[in-house]
Design a protein that fits this description.
By secondary structure, the chain is an alpha/beta fold. The chain is built from 10 helices and 11 strands. It is 44% helix and 17% strand. It is globular. The protein starts with a helix and ends in an 18-residue tail after the last helix.
Length: 333
């Protein structure tokens, strides 16, 4: 009888220990498998923000995260399919140049959630889209640029004249015009998302024509401004730490609100085809004006006050930055 009681106690202890280990096992199993497909290096500013948000979720233990970078357009569909086949529940990427292929993959894997940077609309049931709607802080950086230029000439170097770039440039130009109606712009596109040398050469050409403030939509522009002793405005990320005497201000894109919403929806079985674009706006903390940092005392107080007032108006819904997706043109001669 005693042996039987001892056996029952041992069995009970084993059961309790097993149950005690269950939450840890469940937690491990609950981590969502997420994959990302990038056509450019992860250090490229746009992709780096997505990568940062996904890594944050990984560090919190919410997801397992794998990614592929520098994926050629011709290989994009294949890589998407490989990740879907490997059991990833959420696939993130940018489908601007591979829309048809990406949407085809989504149709073939209806149980996988796809969150893709896209100019198009959501595709039921599982293809959601996002975009960097950071035109609000872009407008604010334009106001600062308009107040900092001495020559009334601003240079703007972009990747491609697509809506995602055009709307930020137009917002920037409108902001600059608000604080300096006399300002004019040089605008050019280099036909690449990541070619710093080419962007740098384009910036040099504008500086030679008299531009003393450069809008650095692409990497390489701030390098040109630094070498020539001119100023630059950052886009998507804050590069002032690398260019403390060059980059005055930056419009920051925070992908965390978008990524976190998608992860939660996918985990809870509620992911659907929708437009995540608005979650990049300031009211959702998806974008912001970077601190002036080294230029805090160099930007005129009048300009800083006007920017602060405009920022409050945007957050209060009293001022709406217009979205203009048309290709911007040079106004300077």
């Amino acid at each position: 009888m005693t042996k039987r009681r001892d056996w029952l106690k041992a069995t009970a202890v084993t059961a309790v220990l097993a149950l005690g280990a269950l939450p840890a096992f469940t937690h491990a199993q609950s981590r969502l498998k997420v994959a990302a497909v990038y056509t450019v290096p992860i250090e490229q500013q746009w992709v780096s923000r997505i990568h940062k948000a996904l890594n944050a979720a990984k560090d919190r233990g919410e997801i397992e995260y794998v990614f592929s970078e520098k994926v050629a357009n011709a290989d994009y569909e294949r890589v998407m399919r490989e990740y879907a086949e490997k059991g990833n529940s959420l696939v993130v990427g940018e489908s601007f140049a591979v829309e048809a292929a990406a949407r085809k993959v989504a149709k073939d894997y209806p149980k996988v959630s796809f969150l893709m940077g896209s100019s198009g609309k959501p595709q039921a049931p599982n293809f959601a889209v996002f975009d960097n709607y950071i035109q609000e802080p872009a407008y604010l950086t334009g106001m600062i640029a308009g107040g900092m230029t001495k020559t009334n000439r601003i240079g703007m170097v972009g990747g491609y004249p697509i809506p995602e770039v055009n709307r930020l440039m137009h917002a920037f130009m409108a902001g600059a015009k608000e604080t300096n109606p006399k300002v004019a712009f040089y605008v050019t596109f280099i036909g690449s998302w990541f070619d710093p040398p080419k962007a740098k050469e384009a910036a040099f050409a504008m500086i030679e024509k008299g531009a003393d403030v450069m809008y650095a939509e692409r990497f390489g522009v701030s390098d040109a401004a630094k070498e020539k002793g001119k100023l630059a405005i950052g886009n998507v990320i804050n590069t002032q730490p690398q260019y403390p005497e060059t980059v005055v201000a930056s419009a920051l894109w925070n992908m965390e609100p978008t990524i976190d919403r998608a992860i939660s929806a996918a985990k809870n079985g509620k992911f659907k085809a929708e437009d995540y674009g608005p979650y990049s706006m300031m009211k959702h903390r998806g974008s912001e004006l970077a601190p002036l940092g080294t230029f805090e005392t160099r930007v005129p107080k009048e300009i800083k006050d006007r920017v602060a007032a405009k920022e409050r108006a945007i957050l209060d819904g009293k001022f709406v930055v217009k979205v203009n997706d048309a290709e911007p043109k040079s106004t300077a001669k």
